[in-house]
Amino acid sequence: MIENLLTYIIFTPLVGALVVLLLPKSQSHLYRIVALVAMAVTLVLAIVAVTNFDTSVAGLTNSESQIQLTQKTEWFSIEMGDLGKFSVDYFVGVDGLNLSLLLLAAIVLFIGAISSWTVEHKKKGYFGLYLLLASSILGCFVALDFFLFYLFFEFMLLPMYFLIGIWGGPRREYAAIKFFLYTLVGSILILIVMIGLYNSVYDPFKTGVEAGIFEASVLPTEEMIIDVQQGVQNGAIDDADIVKSFNMISMADDANYLPYSILGRNSFGEIFGQSARWMAFLALLIGFAIKLPAFPFHTWLPDAHVEAPTPVSVVLAGILLKIGGYGIIRTAFSFFPDAAYHYSWLIGFFGLFSILYGAMNALAQKDLKKLIAYSSVSHMGFVLLGLAAMTVEGVTGAIYQMFSHGLISSMLFLIAGVIYDRTHDRGIENYGGLANQMPKYTVMVTIAFFASLGLPGFSGFIAELMVFIGAFKSYGVIGAIPYWMPIVATAGLVLGAGYYLWTLQRMFFGKFWVKDKAWKEHLTDLNLREYLMLVPLVVLILWFGIYPATLLDLIGNSVEGFTQLISESIQK
Amino acid sequence: MILAQSNMLEGLKDQLQHLTADIFWLAPEVTLVITLVLLLTYDLIFRQNKSVGIVAIAIAGLAFSTLLLISNWSELLVTNSLMGGLLRLDQGAVFFKLLFVVGALLAIVMMQRHRKKDFFFHSSEPLVLVFGLLLGVFLMTMAANLLMVYVSVELVSICSYLLIGLYKKKSNSEAAIKYLLFGAVASAVMIYGMSWLYGFTGTLDFTSVQFVNGLYLVPILPLSIALVMTMAGFVFKLGAFPFHIWSPDVYEATPTPFVALLSALPKLAGLTLIFRFVQVLDLDFANWQLWLGIIAIASMTIGNFSALWQKDAKRMLAYSSIAQAGFLLVGLIAFSESGETAALFYGVIYLIMNFAVFFLIQLFENKEGRIPFDNFRGKGNQEPWIGALLLIVMISLTGLPPTAGFNGKLFVFSALWESWNSNGQDILLWVFIFGLLNTVVSLFYYLKIPYFMFVKRPVDELSLNNKPQIDRIWGTILVCPLLIWFFKSDGLLNILNSINFVF
């Protein structure tokens, strides 16, 4: 059970999707139940995964033995004659970098399933695609083989395209294709690097087996692996015995790059007169920054959010964006730490710019959903800033921010959905004094807004605090980003407070007024289903704001390992 | 005098003996010719209800030649020189011939399932031409002599012109004439180039040592001109830039089964010709990587960008096939063993994707045989299975997971990267980057059909053929390999790897 746990997590929604497909149309009332049950099971399994995670294990992110709950079987391998062979594995596992995000994904997808309860139009397609999307998102977070990761990463696009394109708002067709094309540009950049990487990296264990140094059945020790690595570097192992691999853990270790490969640390390869590693890093960074999204690649986000139906917005903001951040940590920073250090100023700057630019855009919005969308851009800027700092606090803050923003933005989009369900209008200026009409709703909105603007006691505060600490320390510890960046970034907090409080004042306080008199009777307070979605989120946001240790214990070791590898790599 | 005569007789006898020995290897081709003759005579003897007999003969002919090809495959150990050096048979050629037989079979299936089935089977004319074309592409894959190259290319071309003009309508005649003119020019340029090569070397056998040695003595400028002119004919068959302009009109006007055939078989045969020619001459003579790289980039970019503006599915696929020709070339440009295998793999996938997509869109043809995008409007909800199949094929054509199209692209571009990593020619990197970024452009138009099917609201009822179940089954059969070869492509690749593709 435990050894297959992650596989169960990935495939439970897929089984749900199959059930939905096989159920006849006459049973259409069952679709949503199937979806909910599948997501509930997934959530339980994810919690089991968290409880089974050993927080005492050290977390070097380039060592396979320090990844937990792993499962690795060969998927297919292809002989390439003299060029050796390359193998693709079904390789999943968790460490501190992805475990929290896996949990987040399970939570948000479950809430999204509740939120999908009211979908009436083409139910079979909707729930089938939703579950397919869930499967690929979960798979993306746990896949440790680049091929597998890429498969899940790409496979997310198609269900998302149709979910926005068919069930979305008036400009859904435009928004859907824009989303698809933007993200695809990103994935092609990632694919370019992936092809380069797997041709440069070998799997030391499999190569050892192929070269006859040890048996496939033995558990390799560090010395044996180093033996193989030296054998490859000095040519003692024949080229034909080398097993090239998509293993993302192997890719994070400089010693696993083939001596003649252009992306290797010691070969100083160049592309267009620039260091090949720098170029590859930039391609990965941009590829995932589109998904994150960071300025200037963010323009698809407001469109997609505004047109997407509420549950899809929740999933999009709550988890999909995090894949961008996770991708940067797991691939770009892990594979090319030297390049990351070289570009840290730039990354920090774009993070900073996203924070300010997103916040200022949010100030100007008249559509509630667009406001939240731009606030997402702003908050994702903190992720980049924290990563650019390259300190333990900064990276922890970045991951914490992703987790926290996943919960808070889900709540914000649910809140926008509440009002849209009732009046089919999200214009901020069309409402006034809603507190009189919907007091309980107003309480929820206030909580969500305060959580998002980073009030102490909520999870967002911890995350942003850690990012700031990390960013301030950065110059002294590692010299990645200058002091003025976090100082200027604080303006983002002020602006955040500005747009949230202003919205609160315009929409909820004062005398009750709505643009259309007929809306008044539709504006009823929260119902049970909405409580079921919002209350757990409030509890979680408070929990992770008051007891951050719950999450920090999970993240801690791996982030320490991660930053340690970075600083070692810089000194080399 | 008498001695000389008996010598001549001896020589003739020798030659005849060689010919009879070659018959075993050429049995598949002989089968095709016999089938062709049978089809013609059957047409003359019977007056009515010919369709069953025609199909039966055709299928029997294909089945028989498949069996013979398989026996060739299992007995072929070394490359065989046939017909006194005109042809050369290797495993690669047999493999391609098997592919072509599959293609022809699928084309017959498409004709069977076509709305105007009678048109294809009321006389044996269309099938005779299909077999002629098949014979042509068979010979193209084996040609080792410039004259043979020319004859086989012309055989394919003439059959193609006739197939396109078979519908006696204005647009068809226009398309056929367009194709004919382009083809004639390309052939003329090609044979002119060949005559230069003959003049340089004194031999037509481009696999011989004499040919290669002769070329070493020629200055670079005339040699380049001659080679470029010769390549023109091959590129025309491949349907790549700059000989691509005929395709949209031809695709739009021609009956869909013929389009499927014409966009797959001659293209792959053209690819083999380029492959052999380039391989024999090697990189010493010309910077093939640069030339072919430019052709590939131009084909991909022009094809993809032109396809964006189309409103007719067949026209769109015409431009897409230009772009795909570019992708087919990518594996060749790598000039390595793995590139060769990758190109073969992509060729196989291309054939399957191509027939799958034409088979599926054929179901949505209107009465004039056109398929404007409006025909797909909202049909995905009425026919979700076919819609899903089309979606998978389109994803595969774009080259995204989880379809074999992704593996194809992954392998060819991997080979390219490897080759660039070892020899560092800049053009390879450009092809790599342009090729992959082109995927984004292509997504936009490939997704149009699923978009019309699922997102747009329906305007009219869908009227499928009678027995739509059969279409669903055939569609599924065609799409399955695309999924299976994504999840398990090592089997096919290992076969392809074992093919020795050297003259």
Summed up, what is this model?
The complex is a heterodimer of chains A (572) and B (503). Chain A is mainly α and 572 residues long.
3D architecture notes:
The complex is a heterodimer of chains A (572) and B (503). Chain A is mainly alpha-helical and 572 residues long. Chain A has helices at 5-22, 31-51, 99-115, 123-142, 146-155, 157-167, 172-198, 204-210, 222-233, 248-251, 276-291, 300-307, 310-335, 337-342, 344-364, 368-389, 392-423, 434-437, 439-452, 459-477, 484-508, 519-522, 528-546, 549-571; strands at 68-79, 85-94, 243-245, 270-271, 274-275, 431-432, 513-514. Chain A is built from 24 helices and seven strands. In chain A, the strands form three sheets. A three-stranded mixed sheet of chain A has the order 1-2-3. The longest helix of chain A is centred in the C-terminal third of the chain and has 32 residues, at 392-423. By secondary structure, chain B is mostly helical. Chain B has a domain at 287-503. Chain B is built from 21 helices and two strands. Chain B has helices at 2-45, 51-75, 91-112, 117-121, 125-142, 146-165, 170-201, 209-216, 220-238, 247-253, 256-285, 288-307, 313-333, 337-362, 379-382, 384-398, 404-423, 426-446, 448-454, 468-487, 490-498, and strands at 80-82, 87-89. In chain B, strand 1 (80-82) and strand 2 (87-89) form a beta hairpin. In chain B, helix 7 (170-201) crosses helix 10, helix 14 (337-362) packs antiparallel against helix 20 and helix 16 packs parallel to helix 20 (468-487). The longest helix of chain B has 44 residues, at 2-45. The model of chain B has no long low-confidence stretch (mean pLDDT 87). Chain A binds chain B through residues 75-83, 122, 125, 150-151, 154-155, 157-158, 161-162, 165-166, 172-173, 176-177, 180-181, 184-185, 188, 191-192, 195-196, 198-200, 260-262, 269, 271, and chain B through 337-338, 341, 381, 391, 395, 400-402, 406, 410, 413-414, 417-418, 421-422, 429, 432-433, 436-437, 439-440, 443-444, 447, 451, 454-455, 487-490, 493-494, 497.
